[in-house]
Amino acid sequence: MSTALILKLLLTAFITLAIATVAWWARKHPNRSKEYPERVRMPKVLPIFGWLCLGVGLLMGLLSFFTPGSPLGARIASVAIFMGGMAFVAMYRNFYVAARDYEVAFRSVLGTEHVIAYSDIAHYSSGMLRGQQFLTVKSVHGVKFSINASAYDMSPLLRAIDFHQVTGRWPLRVEVPAEGFGP
């Protein structure tokens, strides 16, 4: 075996191990919002990668746009890398999920906020993909929520689904009487 081949194999093994370690750490330590601890955000690796792409795209763009005779491909690549970095930072900034006892609140990667009460769920499905449990919920209002239940703590929603399978109805929100009524 040549030294170049051994170096290539070691580098590939190191990168694979590093990615697996970061993924394991992100699952072990969910990224909770400081203001709202029930909200779980995307792993912190995402904005780090996004800011890195923003910086690389900006530097590539400065070099390619202001260097005479630079190829068009370098300009296109710099804009694509910069826009990809912006997309990663925006996805991290926008997304959160909060599974509560009687509802799930979430904000999509595009920034639209939704709350689905468990009693408003019209359809749900769960499936495995590459050893990960994915969950899709549709409300009676047409809101669709899909998530990797292995990566995010969806235990209240999964308990509500189990409750629905056993009793045939969804758990209802605890009604608290207003002041001045009742004993």
Automatic annotation (TrEMBL):
Keyword annotations from UniProtKB, A to Z: Membrane, Transmembrane, Transmembrane helix
Source organism superkingdom: Bacteria
TM stretches of this protein: 6-25, 45-66, 72-92
UniProt name for this protein: Uncharacterized protein
Organism: Kocuria dechangensis
Record lineage: Bacteria, Bacillati, Actinomycetota, Actinomycetes, Micrococcales
